[in-house]
């Protein structure tokens, strides 16, 4: 065997680390006595800019180049350690692939999903890699080389693009359905200049909600933003609205329906309710729980200080939006009550029904 360690030349920081490492307690022993096949494979790996890891012998001893270090994250110094130990959290998946390499069979896999722990928590990642056997001068497999690149970012970007494209088509369909309903319901109960003005206001409220969703790269919206955007045309700086509630994510459809419902409630309050008199006010609050859980979600619109409340016969567009569409899209219950203190609108649902991908039932 060649007793030189020149195979480490040009090996960057890891080449120096291998030179400086104490190998006395390792089955490999000092580098100058390593087998020729290992020296050649490791020298090539160390001089490569592509992430590579040499796994050697029955103990699966780990040796890697500089480019492989980011893949390890905060796993620390793994030189000389068992590859199975280093990746113990994923060994159930990658162990059989390593066994095939040791049996002489190379494996190439693209965008392989693995849950790994390199920063102190489980992390869903994806890798494209090849496990190739390393043979000695007699053709006997002594180890393998792991040539790998992390593709988590690419896979997530592709998934996000697919979701965005699907969401875009869904939003267009939903918007056309809602606009059609607005036009039909408005023309059933109004005509002439009044119909035009009401139609303009309602479609304007829809456009405001769409702007909020379009300006965000997310597939959902935060309820506080939806509420404040919907109330913008009705706020005079006189603190007539008292708004309170924790951050809660709504799906695009839920955001649109809630914005329309708030627009209808505020318009009614301005004409007949608390906002029609100087001393009137509106409390709008909501409570929630853990995202995705069965914890209850509750939203309350409560008017006070307004004129006596009269219950209207029949159901107009506002009632349909609040008591039917809102309940359907939030998969819960929504009721309007005309109480002596003022109009109340209450929505009940569960946190598991809120957010992107939820509340996307049949068009309402």
How confident is the prediction overall: mean pLDDT? 85
| Tally of DSSP β-strands | 12
- Rough outline: rod-shaped
From the N-terminal CA to the C-terminal CA, the straight-line distance is: 79 Å
In DSSP terms (H or I, runs of 4 or more residues), the helix count works out at 10
Radius of gyration: 32 Å
- Going by CATH, what is the homologous superfamily of the largest domain? Histidine kinase-like ATPase, C-terminal domain
Number of domains: 2
The biggest sheet amounts to: 5 strands, antiparallel
Major β-sheet strand ordering: 2-1-5-4-3
CATH level-3 fold name of the largest domain? Heat Shock Protein 90
Given as residue ranges, the uncertain stretches (5+ residues, pLDDT < 50) are 358-364
Percent of sequence in beta strands: 15-25%
Element-level helix/strand string: HHEEHHHEEEHHEHEEHEEHEE
Residue share in helix: 25-40%
> Which CATH top level class of the largest domain fits?
Alpha Beta
Please name the CATH architecture of the largest domain: 2-Layer Sandwich
Structural category is alpha+beta
List the helices and strands and how they pair.
Blueprint (H helix, E strand, L loop, with lengths): L11 H9 L15 H11 L5 E5 L4 E4 L4 H4 L10 H4 L4 H12 L4 E11 L4 E14 L5 E10 L1 H38 L2 H24 L4 E3 H9 L9 E4 L4 E3 H20 L9 E7 L8 E9 L12 H13 L3 E7 L2 E9 L14
Parallel strand pairs: 7-9
Antiparallel strand pairs: 1-2, 1-5, 3-4, 4-5, 6-8, 9-10, 10-12, 11-12
